[in-house]
Amino acid sequence: MTTLTGESLIGSQTLLGEGNEFTATAPARSETLIGTFRNLNLAQASQAVEKAAAAFQPYSQLHPHKRADFLAAIADQIEAIGDPLLERASAESGLPMARLTGERGRTCGQLRLFANLVREGSWVDARINPALPDRQPLPRPDIRRMLVPLGPVVIFGASNFPLAFSVAGGDTASALAAGCSVVVKAHPAHPGTSELVGRAIQAAATQTGMPEGTCSLVHSDNEVAQAIVAHPAIKAVGFTGSRAGGLALLRVAQARPEPIPVYAEMSSVNPTVILAGAMQERGTAIAEGLAASVTMGVGQFCTNPGIVFVLQTGKLPDFLGTLGAKIRDSVPATMLTPGIRDNYSRGIGTLTHLPDVTLLAQSETNARSIQTEGRPAILTTTGNAFQHNPALSHEVFGPSSLVVVCANETELAACLQTMEGQLTATIFATDSDLTNSSHNWVALLQEKAGRLLFGGYPTGVEVCEAMTHGGPFPATSDSRTTSVGTAAIERFVRPISYQSFPDALLPLALQQANPLGILRTVNGVKV
Amino acid sequence: MTTLTGESLIGSQTLLGEGNEFTATAPARSETLIGTFRNLNLAQASQAVEKAAAAFQPYSQLHPHKRADFLAAIADQIEAIGDPLLERASAESGLPMARLTGERGRTCGQLRLFANLVREGSWVDARINPALPDRQPLPRPDIRRMLVPLGPVVIFGASNFPLAFSVAGGDTASALAAGCSVVVKAHPAHPGTSELVGRAIQAAATQTGMPEGTCSLVHSDNEVAQAIVAHPAIKAVGFTGSRAGGLALLRVAQARPEPIPVYAEMSSVNPTVILAGAMQERGTAIAEGLAASVTMGVGQFCTNPGIVFVLQTGKLPDFLGTLGAKIRDSVPATMLTPGIRDNYSRGIGTLTHLPDVTLLAQSETNARSIQTEGRPAILTTTGNAFQHNPALSHEVFGPSSLVVVCANETELAACLQTMEGQLTATIFATDSDLTNSSHNWVALLQEKAGRLLFGGYPTGVEVCEAMTHGGPFPATSDSRTTSVGTAAIERFVRPISYQSFPDALLPLALQQANPLGILRTVNGVKV
């Protein structure tokens, strides 16, 4: 296995932090893993930002094919690490090798998807309105517009996807694809995985001749991380994590003399609505599917179905019986960190003691503390209680779900109306459920979420052009964006127009001969 | 002339405010105009928001052609008012009839442009990834994505475009086009113009059968306006005006439990850079063009060229001589309001008394106070002074410009680097100016502005697909957007994805048969 030095990686250089020392813990064994890491102090972390600032202009002006080569080379270098990467990630996260093999595939797939997007080039949304010198009463000048990168950005690694949403994950890939230089703040729960991937990026940058400082990896505490967000050279922030963590960064970004965009993906309970006809037709099958979705990955997905709305109907006992049985049969499993496990246990404990909340079932196997296990659980409450107690709609990150039993559709609709913004919302319904209802369920859910599912389970986020992994606040801090799929690149750009520019001074994407061969909009028509 | 009642227009209803009474003043005569207006109190203003909230779902779900009909009908109704609209606007703003005739054309042109955009329909950026049931290791579900409106929004009328950026201006047109219901806060400097246009919108809404409350016009003070921004039902804000005003709204929006986007177009000094070769070749012609641009519309454009950077070369005296002569020959003219005129006079006075600032020239005609006139002026300073005194880069809204004389290109580049974000940046250069320079001027200016001009004047903002009227903070509060041109619609939408939805439940834009006949992206390819 590659030796871990515990250093931060500043462009092509390494830098041993002068801040606190820390180690990684294997949650499955509660054991310290090899490798000692050192946080950067503020002056050291600023070096990464200053290098990113110096790299921005040359990096953003590279031929897009060079950027594509860099992204593809990162994927190659990650694969070249081989099993040691998966083993370290598994040790640090407690996630099984099979899951991490899949996640590595997704990570490299994302990098290559963005490489292809950049190589193809049309994503810059080039628009051209040629001059009309004879127009009356005034001539029109030549105006050409495209998307350009915002500047250096900082990306925070997420704990729950140590590969796909960490150092070379979706946020980094989309920011680099856009032409931004990137400072990645490593997640302290998987510093070794971060270092390995950071070195893969370093190797790819050297191999493809990227400007020095295009991408850096820093270990730091929260205070230094916030100072990076506040640094004048930083122009945007990507974050996936807790609501408290995301809001803290948002506050820092808003308090800057120059406020900057923060893309924080924070919290979501992903409501699932089961209407009466669907419950009647296939309630037990839905219960089985839900149990699998709730416990998948020990419930550690942003898209975990945390709240299930059902109606008080004759088939409800069968549904609850099947769901309860599946959860009782499920087994506890290792969670990402002791802190996450503790929050989960505390969250379930708090819910259980609230009035009108019943613990319907939990895994019949006890969670082993030393293995940092989370014990799957299903709770129930009433629609009336849900409407009147906001605590019931808070996210409990882990393998649990709260079933809200509503007296009727009016109560169910009222419950939905009280909910905050969500990443996803799911509806199970028959044709007659929808046509005979006085509520427009799809319209109601659409106002609350970034992705609507019909008769499915929200876990599993496809990486493709049509994906929206985002949603109204507080699911994210910016509902106008997605953090998964090709549209994620749009977070890191702004439009710029060139008026009456000589052709040779224009970016390639806007030159008259269209040397990049991209799809452009000329006088409103795609050509 | 249509009678002005001084009421607010809440959907199809009228509502006489119970707040303060106010009148409009004709700045050209310092006379009170007919019509007494009454501000709404908070409870009254909330009615407009609540109606907009109730209208949002039905309005957003109308067939897009219906929305297009509404927008086109607003244009028709505005034209149907005829000269009384222009006369009132001219009286309230001091702007000449010819300018307002053009501005009305632009206003109606914008409405029809957005009507056509919505009728054509492809702007929703529909993306489809069909199901791949046989994909290994996991099948892919059907995923379809489009842009949907954010919700009810509030738009603040701007003082300097009483038609094109006021009640039925670009912000309102783009928000209505997106499918948002709209509450317009009338600008108190032209309440009569606002009422006339508001009634045109009312008539158009009735004529085309819009849901009640789709658009309202409110008169209010700033406190009530801020309460509207803070109302939970409001999902975005559009504003054009002062930096202080925009930042106040931004703070209110950020302090909400659910923060919302604010599109504030605030302040810009629109730097113009003249390099040595261009000065040598055509310095006096540039001086003439600049004088015209500076004094156009009494300098009351966001894109007024407020700072001009020149180099200390042999042709500089000719340039300054011509510029000074043109300004001395220019005549003072009526500004929009006494407050704007006072700010302008004070701004010039403050600048003149700063060290290293010289009043090069001003109009030889005195400004008449009773006619609220602003007196054109040109000041000069040094590159060294500019770099070290931030006050020199503050916007002075009105017919003036500050010429910054730099010792050399290094000093000029340093000056540009100290500047904040701008709406526009202009460069005059010859080929050899650019090829022989050690500075990448275009790259430098690109980081600072939303629109770059080569050898032109920034006043005059073309309404077209390729326009960016926006720029890095503080030119706007959100550099990722434009407030002019078709892309302005993107400010009021978010993406949403539908997974495994029955075709009949999908929005028309995403249905398999493509009933709207729009351009869509299927598996990454435009079809």
Residue share in helix of chain A = 25-40%
Largest interface: A-B, 72 and 72 residues
The overall average pLDDT of chain A, rounded, is 97
- The number of helices of chain A is 15
Distance between the ends of chain A: 51 Å
Q: How would you write the strand order of the largest sheet of chain A?
A: 15-17-18-13-12-19-20
Rg over alpha carbons of chain A: 25 Å
Q: How does the overall form of chain A come out from the CA principal axes?
A: globular
Structural class of chain A: alpha/beta
What proportion of the residues of chain A form beta strands (DSSP E)? Answer: 15-25%
Oligomer: homodimer
- Report the major sheet of chain A: 7 strands, mixed
Unreliable stretches of chain A (pLDDT < 50, length at least 5) are: none
Counted beta strands of chain A: 23
Structure, described:
- The structure is a homodimer of 527-residue chains.
- Chain A has 527 residues and is of the alpha/beta class.
- Chain A has helices at residues 42-60, 64-81, 83-93, 97-120, 170-178, 191-207, 222-230, 243-255, 276-295, 316-329, 338-352, 383-388, 409-418, 431-435, 441-446, and strands spanning 8-10, 13-15, 21-26, 31-38, 127-129, 143-149, 153-156, 182-185, 215-218, 236-240, 262-265, 272-274, 307-311, 333-334, 358-362, 373-374, 377-382, 400-406, 422-428, 449-454, 493-499, 521-522, 525-526.
- At the A-B interface, strand 5, strand 6, helix 15, strand 20 and strand 21 of A face strand 5, strand 6, helix 15, strand 20 and strand 21 of B.
- Strand 20 (449-454) of chain A pairs parallel with strand 21 (493-499) of chain B.
